[in-house]
Amino acid sequence: MPLLLVADGGGSARAPEKRAPAEVVVSAGVPFAPGALRDVRLLRLRDALGAAVPLRVKPLAVWPLDRSIRSALIAFHAALPPGARAIYALEYGAPAGSPGQRADAPGARPALLDEALLPNPDGPIAAVLPPSWYAASEVCGPQLPAMDDRRFPGFESGIERGLERMTPAYDTYGVSCAGAHRTYYDGPHALYQRFLRNGDAGRYRRARAEALWYRQHELRFSPDRRVAVHVCEREDWTPERPLSWQVLRRMLGQGMLDDHLLTGDPAAREAVLAMGEALRRNLPALTEGKKEDVLRVTERNMAWAMMTLSSAYALDPRPELRSALRGLMDRTVAWQRQGTSGAFEHDLHRADPSECERGPRGGSPFMTALLVDALMDYRALTGDARVREVVVRAASWLSERAMTSDRRAFRYLWGCETDAYDDSGTADLNLLIVPVFGAAYALTRDPRWLAVGDALADVGVKEMRVKQPKQWNQAMRAFGRYLGYRARPDPG
Fold this sequence. Notes:
Layout: E1 2-6, E2 24-31, E3 44-46, E4 56-62, E5 69-78, E6 85-91, E7 112-113, E8 126-128, H1 131-137, H2 153-166, H3 187-198, H4 201-218, E9 219-221, E10 228-230, H5 245-248, H6 253-263, H7 266-287, H8 299-315, H9 319-338, H10 348-351, H11 365-382, H12 386-400, H13 430-433, H14 435-444, H15 448-462, H16 469-487
Parallel strand pairs: 4-7
Antiparallel strand pairs: 1-6, 1-8, 2-5, 3-6, 4-5, 9-10
Helix pairs in contact: 1-3, 2-16, 3-4, 3-6, 3-16, 6-7, 6-8, 7-8, 8-9, 8-11, 11-12, 12-14, 14-15, 14-16
């Protein structure tokens, strides 16, 4: 596969020097689809002239179901003048000297396994792969290269235009514990999806910067750095006290997982595992509290907890984390079955009294979509067959009972007696919700789910609002997955 090197300067602010470029360490996380690679020592690298390049490599993560390589860190030396580009070739699969290949042929030198290998993700040379490779790997969930999205070109232009308009003032957004802020809806995850769908160095640098910003500004670690919570949690928090709702939705495991799998940064791995450990230790308090089951009060509480634990399990598939995830799945299945609608019914008054004075029971379409996102991550890691029924029931509820009467959008809340929310004023949320239909299609291959999803996506693209990071993040993180489901349905 082609590996594009771009000497864009990375994090350096120094002016280009007018002399022969020195060799620097170039590194990248190289993702693989399940079953594609089982031994990282079978990776080899050739430069633009076909000469073998000494390559050091180590695995970053495996797919838990078959233990094949999910991502490998590669590192090598290269020299490029500022602004220059070069196309190297990364080969994998056949060992050096295999039939049909001379042992001294260009690129035949095997990689060196190095557990002490340090990445250089912010060095002066970026190394990126084609978006088609990233999409096929599903390293960040199902994706479609932006250049291949001919069905919704308005989304591609609108999402880029929205980010461009925000950029001059982007740094004015900080951490807000009371409302939406810069990384709400997982800004790093959204920006990494944007990079993967385009495969260029500029978008890589932008996603990487957001991942660093999150860790520097929004995480608080325990003294031993084994546990991490969002800075909006009380200073005296302990795992015996339930994490607050505001903190659950700000524990961004998916974005930190992306950062580790695509850069090999050990700080990203540390953050993923520490947030996962905080959730694992906190589960008894969240689910068995005297007042309420915090995770079943509102769908997104369960969603963010499952996303965080799944991200940790993806890097450390130990039995304790799998058990915690299965426990959340058990609760999710029971929760949906307690009602008859297919929704995850909750007490709307307790969920948000400012949005509904009297329930008594109902559900949130956009929060349900977040939970389905988490369920699909969980399924990819564990193969739990129960996810199929849960997702199909949720999709049926959304299409049959949760839409507005004009069928152009979804009710912001379903089941509220004091406000039916029967208007299309929140049609921009369609882009967050239609991935549920994409997931149902991937699991069943029933084309009717795409017919429903496409019709609602057309309205959502037209009504897309991406004037603030929150709206941009929610559209990018979700609709990119829908496009991926349409193009690469899960064989089930």
